[in-house]
Specification:
Length: about 100
């Protein structure tokens, strides 16, 4: 499997890094390491996660974040990495807007 982190998801990761690093120095690095570990697990587990808002949703192991992805052939496309503490309506709206791109 090829894993592709799309621009919006990359920005989500940067935003998460900045938030956690502002809470405690070094926590942003731990956040990024943890999320990329979760993303790397998609090499083995892509497709087993439930579908929410037309995307597979994998929950992070250590942070309250969800990774939204889809599978196209041999490629896993990461569309968004969103904080699960957000209002579900805003999450749905964000993911619906991705479909328009």
């Amino acid at each position: 499997m090829i894993i592709q982190v799309l621009d919006d998801a990359e920005q989500d990761l940067i935003d998460g890094f900045n938030f956690y690093d502002s809470q405690e120095l070094g926590l942003g690095d731990y956040f990024i390491d943890s999320l990329f570990s979760d993303i790397d697990s998609l090499h083995l587990y892509a497709g087993i996660h439930p579908i929410r808002f037309n995307y597979h949703r994998m929950l992070s192991q250590r942070f309250p974040f969800a990774i939204y992805y889809e599978i196209e052939g041999n490629t896993v496309k990461i569309w968004a990495v969103l904080d699960c503490r957000r209002d579900p309506v805003s999450t749905e709206k964000r993911l619906r807007n991705l479909e328009l791109k």
